[in-house]
Write a structure and sequence with these properties.
With 309 residues, the chain is mostly helical.
Length: 309
């Protein structure tokens, strides 16, 4: 499927730069944060930490995220959902014609396969539950933009992101370090980490609402409107603060440290409420992703500080 780049297209980058754009490096902290938080919590609550588990979990998480990003790039293009002239977000390499769709799809599948093979080393630690989590995570990465009804085209996107970047990733990391089924503390930590990740998608879908209407996507802003999306963003951005404080208090850490998130969250929420839609939201999207990184790192620091103090 060939398409002539629209008037808003950028000059064609080199091959290396095109592949770098395709993997979307700014999204990769979303994969790293839950591994860091789950590992910190396992160390604090159960005095259990494996450098091997930490390192391999990071590798697998990054590979899964890269594979999903590449697959999303090519799947949306082949579905006809990426018009380079109308796109408001970062450019897609297949839609722009910078990389062949077949090559991007091939590398996406190879990345998922590499994640599967690397994940077998974690299966040797955690057994069949980790195998099941790994397979389901790969299928979710494929289903996000692929299949007859992609998750990204429905109202379920935020829920799926919250679950996999939060509950599943943190809970799985906890299980690998401790050998224990995740209880209230790792699940709470997972909820905290997953909320800002879902907030990133809220901004993304709000920015793309008009184009999604044309393409027939039924995302949250399309179905429920901008006002509902703003309230959703408010909840997803603010809730990590009290949840983090409660979790850290229960584990004996510096429970007050997550209060530092409050002014950042307030500024982000204000911007989302007053900024116009469309491309103006790109900067807010990037800042929301950074907020997710700060939430995770501050939570890990608050947990560890109580043990080190």
């Amino acid at each position: 499927m060939n398409r002539t780049p629209g008037p808003g297209a950028q000059a064609q980058p080199g091959v290396f730069q095109a592949w770098l754009l395709a993997i979307r490096p700014r999204t990769l902290p979303l994969a790293i944060v839950p591994i860091v938080v789950g590992s910190a919590l396992a160390y604090v609550a159960q005095q259990s930490f494996s450098p091997f588990v930490f390192g391999m979990a990071l590798v697998v998480a990054l590979l899964l995220q890269i594979g999903a990003n590449l697959h999303n790039d090519v799947a949306d293009f082949q579905r006809g959902a990426d018009d380079p002239g109308a796109r408001l977000g970062p450019r897609r390499v297949t839609a722009e014609g910078w990389l062949p769709a077949a090559s991007v799809r091939r590398v996406a599948m190879l990345t998922f396969l590499t994640a599967f093979v690397a994940g077998l080393s974690l299966v040797s630690v955690g057994g069949w539950p980790i195998f099941a989590v790994g397979v389901i995570s790969i299928l979710a990465g494929l289903a996000y933009s692929g299949g007859p009804l992609p998750i990204s085209h429905t109202c379920l996107g935020e829920l799926v992101v919250w679950m996999f970047f939060g509950l599943v990733a943190v809970g799985g990391t906890w299980f690998l370090h401790t050998g224990q089924t995740p209880g209230w503390s790792p699940l709470t930590a997972g909820a905290v980490v997953g909320l800002p990740a879902a907030a990133v998608l809220v901004v993304n879908n709000t920015r793309d609402r008009e184009q999604d209407l044309v393409n027939g996507r039924r995302t949250f802003p399309v179905v429920f409107g901008i006002a509902a999306s703003r309230f959703e963003y408010l909840v997803l951005t603010l809730l990590p603060v009290p949840l983090s404080m409660w979790l850290v208090y229960q584990t004996g850490g510096w429970w007050w440290l997550p209060l530092l998130l409050l002014p950042i969250a307030a500024r982000l929420i204000r911007r989302f409420y007053i900024q116009p839609g469309g491309a103006a939201l790109n900067l807010l999207l990037a800042d929301t992703a950074r907020y997710g990184l700060v939430v995770g790192l501050l939570l890990a620091l608050a947990l560890l500080a109580g043990r080190w103090a």
